[in-house]
Amino acid sequence: MSTADAVAGVLWVGVTLYAVFGGADFGAGFWSLLAGGSERGRRARALIDWAIGPVWESNHVWLIFVLVVLWTAFSAAFAAIFSTLFIPLSLAALGIVFRGSGFAFHHLAPSARDRRVSQLLFGLSSLLTPFFMGTVVGAIASGRVPIGNAEGDPVTSWVNAASLLTGALFVATGAYLASVFLVSDSRRAGDADLERYFTTRALAAAGATGGLALAGILVFRADARFIFDGLVGEALPLVIASAVCGLGVLALLQRGAQRGARVLAVGAVAAVVAGWGVAQYPYLLPKALTISAGAADPASLTAVLIVFGVAVLLVIPSLGLLYVLTQRSMLEEEGEAS
Amino acid sequence: MIDADFPSLLAAASQLAPARSQMAFTLGFHIVLASLGVGFPALMLIANYLGLRRKDPVALELAQRWSKVAAVTFAVGAVTGTLLSFEFGLLWPEFTDRFGEVFGVLFTIEGIFFFLEAIFLTIYIFGWKRLSGWAHFWTGIPVAICGIGGACSVVAVNSWMNQPQGFTLGANGAVTDVDPIKVIFNPAVPYEVPHMILAAYLVTCFLVASVYAVGMLRGRRDRHHRLGLLIPLTVGCLLAPVQFGVGDTAARAIAKDQPVKFAAMECVQTTATHVPEYIFGRCTKDGVKGGIGIPGFDSFLVGFSTDTKVIGLDTVPPEDRPPANTMLHWAFDIMVGIGSALIALGLWFGFVWWRRRDIPQTKWFLRAIAISGVATAVAMECGWIVTEVGRQPWIVYEVMRTEDAVTSASGVWVTFVLVLLLYTVLGVATIQVLRSMARRWREGDELDSVPYGPSGSSE
């Protein structure tokens, strides 16, 4: 394995962690949007706020990590992606601004109307941001991003069956992860009603995600043959692992099992992300740019690996502390009636 | 060949103005929030320390409220910062394509600091109720350290754009032989990085102090307001003279490292000795019109002697000179003027405190503090105008032109307008939210917010 492959692996670790944790936070916003009117959805939304309040900001940093590693280690791919996919990435960036500020303000805004508007913006942008990110991934995977400064088509590169379907899959995956997490959070909060509420939604989201994934395989077969061949070739064990994990989650949820569902749900998503990586290997941009051709100067790659090593030593234990404190309910907002 | 290239050239040219506008606007917005992210944790920890040490509930209450304010500004700063990282690709793909592998390592370091800052700020903000007093205090320490560390990394990238080194350009313009250590410790780091860190602290200190000064002017002269004024004001007044010294060193270094930028700041048209220093005035090809001239003083500031030769704009062809000279010159003078005024404010405060162990009683002192917050932010923005506009037409000084870095994607005017509208709403909303938090605190809505549960409070 070359240094460039190792850095691509680091990048993929970041992508996976963002897909899991960032994705779940987007999904939580999605459920907040669908929770219904301000009175009817109050309890579900209070749980969502309580669950993601302490962690969403740290989870968001994985996106920064992915961007920074991409532009440092694979500058040409970064430039190609961001110039050709200018429209969906601009929309995703604006969505991120709406979402973060909407979430920060929805408790604190001066009037009830402002709080509702913030809440709505948070929900809507939690739906649209992962959708646009998904179209970007679909565009990359289906080989629609050529090298160079805005060399690809600004519109059809991401408005096509494969990209739109990947966008929908991103939204569904986030909603699925979030609902599985929220089942556990309801239990932690000791709220049996909400536990049932989110179990129902988790089952629905699991079904939708599975259906979209199957549809995706068919669309990729017709539209992005290279990735399809990879997914049913070298990456097949990972695809099967993902499906098995997904079915396992369904079984556990239906039996109301106390543990295991979260781990399996994470496993299902991580396996798909890994499968995408394996299917795409050795390309960064399928058929246009390989990892070795797109790699930065060796000294830069080594520097990224060193920094990643330091990050593992410092960030992972800190994140662990944050999650443990959160799960033990040591981190509570002031004066929050729950 | 020429025909095929022409439309794309035209497209690139048309994206330059909106791309520069969007970058300037989003960076100028973010930098205020980023400064609060760097400076606020320190103020919050000072108040927390005093509160725990002296068993002072007022100080603890201040620390707790400041941490809630920091939570809001940090959340908004995190997302406006994310937009900036997108803009490296959305607006400047050619720059990142060529040099991402050079400056990128600094951003990976920044990523670690940002991560730790986000994690520990969350633990600190959400830890008031259940963590014990000193344990909670210590979870805040990494926030202050990482704020400084992250700012160092990001500003070092800007320093590198001013003083690029640590790479070789091949015949085809490709980058080879990257030396990350030389990139990280580029020659502009020793003056630009401390200048910005101090600016971040000054902006935070005087903004916070100004809020309490306004409260006192409205008759709220309780201990809460007094301490809320004293903590940031003391830190700010101690740092203001340090900043003046660092800034003076930076200006001299720029006269040596980036003489054209310096010439544009001071409107020096032709290289000469005994160059006068002009305060304000209008820059023209024939020198400064209007303004107050001090004979020989510019030469003296550069080399401690009026015989010092100052490089003029005429040393480079017109297409290599920065635009908007008068604006640059004014931005520099306004920054220095506000910096000097802050020192004067500190001397006033220090003198009265030395004689009477109290803040000056006149309303004029509070009025001066009340405007110092916005004034300090203006000074910082002026500093960024000087360093960024002063580097033009280069994005990487004397290596890459800004016009060669811009995206070919059309539609930057559209995103610029969208960002302009969104950020206007965001700025207004942030201020409204902070004001409504303050109002609710004044009305005593949150009676249950006693830090550290029953044991840590003396109420």
Strands, helices and their partners?
The complex is a heterodimer of chains A (338) and B (459).
Chain A (H helix, E strand, L loop, with lengths): L2 H32 L7 H11 L3 H18 L1 H10 L1 H20 L6 H30 L19 H28 L3 H32 L1 H8 L3 H20 L5 H20 L2 E3 L3 E2 H4 L3 H30 L11
Antiparallel strand pairs in A: 1-2
Helix pairs in contact in A: 1-2, 1-3, 1-6, 1-7, 1-11, 1-13, 3-4, 3-13, 5-6, 6-7, 7-8, 7-11, 8-9, 8-10, 9-11, 10-11
Chain B lengths: L1 H52 L3 H34 L2 H34 L6 H30 L5 E2 L5 E2 L3 H5 L4 H29 L5 H35 L1 H8 L10 E3 L2 E3 L2 E3 L2 E3 L2 H7 L21 H32 L6 H27 L4 E3 L3 E2 L10 H31 L10 H4 L3
Antiparallel strand pairs in B: 1-2, 3-6, 4-5, 7-8
What does this structure look like?
The complex is a heterodimer of chains A (338) and B (459). Chain A contains 13 helices and 2 strands; from the N terminus they run αααααααααααββαα. Chain A has 338 residues and is mainly α. Chain A has a single domain, classed as Formate dehydrogenase/DMSO reductase fold (Up-down Bundle). Chain A has a two-stranded antiparallel sheet. In chain A, a hairpin with a 3-residue loop joins strand 1 and strand 2. In chain A, helix 8 (192-223) crosses helix 9 and helix 10 packs antiparallel against helix 11. In chain B, the strands form 4 sheets. In chain B, strands 1-2 form a two-stranded antiparallel sheet. A two-stranded antiparallel ribbon of chain B has the order 3-6. In chain B, strands 4-5 form a two-stranded antiparallel sheet. Chain B has 2 domains: 26-187 and 410-459, no CATH class; 203-405, no CATH class. In chain B, helix 1 packs antiparallel against helix 2 (57-90), helix 4 (133-162) crosses helix 6 and helix 6 (189-217) runs antiparallel to helix 11 (363-389). Chain B is mostly helical and 459 residues long. The chains are: A mainly alpha (338), B mainly alpha (459). Chains A and B meet through helix 3, helix 4, helix 5 and helix 13 of A and helix 2, helix 3, strand 2 and helix 12 of B.
